[in-house]
Amino acid sequence: MSHPQAHRPARRTAIALSLAAAVFAIGSASAADRPVLSKTVADAMKRDLGMNDQQLARYFNAERTAFVNEGRVARQLGDRYAGSWLERGADGNFSYVAATTGSAKAGNVAGVALRQHRYSMRQLENAVADLDRVHAAVSKKAVLGGVHAWGIDVPTNSIVVTVAPGYALNAVDLVAFSNVDASMVRFEVSSLEAPSPFLNVIGGNAYTSGGGRCSIGFSATRSGAKGFATAGHCGGVGTSVGLSGTTVGSVRAAYYPGGDMAWASVRTADTLYGQVTKYNGTVQRVLGRTEAAVGAAICRSGSTTGWRCGTVTRKNVSANYGNGTVSGLTQSTACAGQGDSGGSWITGSGQAQGVTSGGSLPAGSNNNCGVASPVTYFQPINPIISRFGLVLTLG
Q1: Torsion-angle region of residue 279: left (phi > 0), alpha (psi -120 to 50) or beta?
Q2: Which label site among 113, 116, 185, 213 has the fewest CB atoms less than 10 Å from its CB?
Q3: What is the pLDDT of residues 308-322, one digit of tens each?
Q4: Would the pTM count as exceeding 0.85?
Q5: Among 132, 153, 173, 260, the one annotated catalytic
Q6: What range does the domain containing 255 cover?
C-alpha cells in the first residue's frame, strides 16, 4: 500500500499525541408491544446484568420505547441523526436516548429527549469504512498486528480502536493512513488475546462442520430448502454438516472474511423449529428479527457455554481476525467460547439478532466468561437473511 510520505508522519505524530492523552481501559463505555419473557430468561438477565425485578420491568419499558421510536427518530433527524441507545442510570432506571448533530434544545423528537453530538451516524459509518479500506489495502497484515478491532461507540460519539499492550503505534498507523478525523477516534488497550473465530464446533445446539464443532444459529429456508443460518468461519461452501453424529447436509452459501455468515442445508425429513435452546430444558421462541438498540439486553446460546446474557455495546464493528477482517459486527458483553461460533443471539422478547462470530479471550482460556467485561462479537442476522435470500423460521 502506498501513501505520500509527507502525509503519514504528520498524521502519525498528531494521532500519537491523541493516543498518549487517552485513558486506556478494558471493556465498554460508561419488540414487541408485550415482551414474551419466561422466568428462565428473566433469571438469566437478572443474573448476568445485575438487575432486580423492578429494574427488569423498567428495562422492558425502555426497550419498547426504543422499538417504537428508533426508526422514526432516524427518519425525522435525517443527516443530523447521531444514533440512539438504551442507557442505564446510576439508580438502575433505564431510558431511551437519541442524539443529533443539530441543536438538542429544539425539543423532543417523537417524545424522545435529544442529546447533542458532534458527528452524525453517517460520518461515523464512513470512518469505519475508511479504516476497513486501509486495513484491506495493507499487503502485510503483521504491520497492523495487535490492532484488535475498530467500531462505532454511539453513546460517546466516537470510533473506538482496540489494541493490545505494546502495539499502540500500529493503531496510530491504521488511523494515520486513513482520512479519518483523529478527534473522532478513541483508543482502548485490552489485555485479552486478539479476537478470533470461536472455532471448536433448534438454535444454539451443536453441529459438526468439517471435523470441528460449531453451533446452530437460526432455522431458515432458502428457496424452499431447509437449513439454518450460522457463522461463515465454521466452514466454506461444500463443508459437510452433521447433527447428532449423522451427516445431514452441507454449507451451501458462505461469506467469510468480510462478513461472517453462512447457510447450511439439512434433509427434507428434518424438522425446523423457530426456537433457541436455553440449555435447561426450555427454549426461547423466535418471534421476529427487529434489531435491538445499543444498550439493549441480549442473550446468546451456544454448545460450549450455554445460555448467557449481556448488553449490546457497539455496532458496525470491524474485527481483525488475523486471517481477514470481518466488518459490520455487533459487540456485546455476553460471554462466549470456542464452539459457540454460529450460535443464536436473541432478545428477551424473541427478536433474533445474529450468530456468534468471535471475541477476545484471556490467555490460555477457551472462553471469556471469567472476564469482568467480556468482548464478544456477533454477525447480525438481517444481513445474512438479505445476502442469502433466507426466510427465518418463527416459533
Answers
A1: left
A2: 113
A3: 999 999 999 999 998
A4: no
A5: 260
A6: 193-395
